[in-house]
Automatic annotation (TrEMBL):
E.C. numbers: 2.1.1.72
Reactions mediated catalytically: a 2'-deoxyadenosine in DNA + S-adenosyl-L-methionine = an N(6)-methyl-2'-deoxyadenosine in DNA + S-adenosyl-L-homocysteine + H(+)
Keyword Heme: no
Protein name: site-specific DNA-methyltransferase (adenine-specific)
Amino acid sequence: MNNKKQKLELNWIGKEKRPRLEPRIFLEDEALSYHSTKAEQALDSAQNASSTSNQTYHNNLLIHGDNLLALKALEQDYAGKVKCVYIDPPYNTGSAFEQYDDGLEHSMWLSLIRSRIELLWSMLDPEEGSLWVSIDDNEMPYLRVLLDEICGRSCFIAANVWQKRYSRENRAAIGDVHEYILVYAKQPLKFKANRNKLPLTEKQAKVYKNPTNDPKGPWRTIPITAQAGHATAAQFYEIIGPTGKVFNPPPGNCWRYSKPVFEQLLNDGRIYFGKKGDSQPTTIRYLSEVEGAVPWTWWPHEEVGNTDESKKESIALFGKSLFDTPKPERLLERIIHIATNPGDIVLDSFAGSGTTGAVAQKMGRRWIMVELGEHCETHIAPRLKKVIDGEDQGGISKSFNWQGGGGFRYLRLAPSLLKKDEWGNWIINKEYNAEMLTAAMCKHMGFTYAPSENQFWNQGFSTETDFIYITTGSLAYDQLKRISEEVGSERTLLICCKAFMSEGADFPNLTIKKIPQAILNKCEWDNDDYSFTLNVLPDPEEEIIEEEMDD
């Protein structure tokens, strides 16, 4: 028998075909970037003040463009730095590709999600980062297996069930009233240790009472018994109550504490024997000691909102509900509260109506959002401006006493670095100026773009002693000799240029490459659309193998 642990995989048409993404640079649209004029004003709450200190003009990014290209563009600077990724991708309800059969539609959806989740997973903080994905029944089982494959089955945390409706759906055989929020964490044990608990609800707090007028305030009792499966001898002993009544653990149980610990609790007044002193002992827990409630997987609409609430929020912001499946702000508040702390980065690459950024802003988190649609400019940016100016008092604003503050940069993806000329040859895109070309080449060659003010050849670095210089000019021997002398023997320099003449001389501290030849085979060029397209499918001449959906 083969005892080797097998890896479960999900198979679909086109799985083996992966995009070779061009790492683009970003261009800021300063006319749409925005920062608060109230940023220096004192705010009414400490929570809001904290958020303002973390919400500088450059901290938050609203990116307009294909989200797969945008994630690739973010990868170099943000890999391992994002605390929480939340996405609400298209649910593949069967209407996205009416011209294709179900198998092709399903395959395209899986390929689209797979490519994005792989990049998103790499963005997460390797210690405490977590991924949250909204999904419904159409693809949830497949997505769960896919996430196990990408993230690792051991990284699964929970499949939260959100009650999106509170009224009955009478048109279906069984009414659909829920969606899922799947959660995976980079380090599950560290996530458990560091995730935030939820504040007690009014109903939960009412359990704590003070029938004894205890000066420490309201309290409740906690059983001191536990299952005896892994008990030690020290957890079996007699307890004598105030009336002389003797207590032993019930059959199959033991005391939760050893006898010395129990006696210490008794001396501290933390053991309760009931009003008459003859009931089985319990432990007293004070409300003031409760940090919060451990999150669980059932998220009722009373606690986190529903689709009616989200549509009302949308109408208040935009005059009408423009989005089919907006999420209520309270739902995002819970996710962000559990997974992050003020100042942490939250990333959403399917921005939709912009709820993630709006909530993150109000909660003092930094955020990055990506959206391809034109509503990124016409609706999301104006919504965020209202949040920053304190004009948006809907959603969670009042519970956080939000008065405004912060800002964001509005970025667009630069066009492809290479274009074909009229003869079909790849050349540098004429839309690129020298600064854009340098920044792009740094990204392609794995360098951080950081031009020096004093050394013309120092335009970026990969280590403390390794630098890069990009020019569209041709470098003669004398120029290379001068650069080599300035670089010195303790440093190295990568030069990317149009042409060079070294006349047989060897410069050991220089590596010289021609552009665009140096990057021609690094990726696929001049492709601006990685959305729901047929490019995930095999080439027409390839044999189509019957689709398999095996575990």
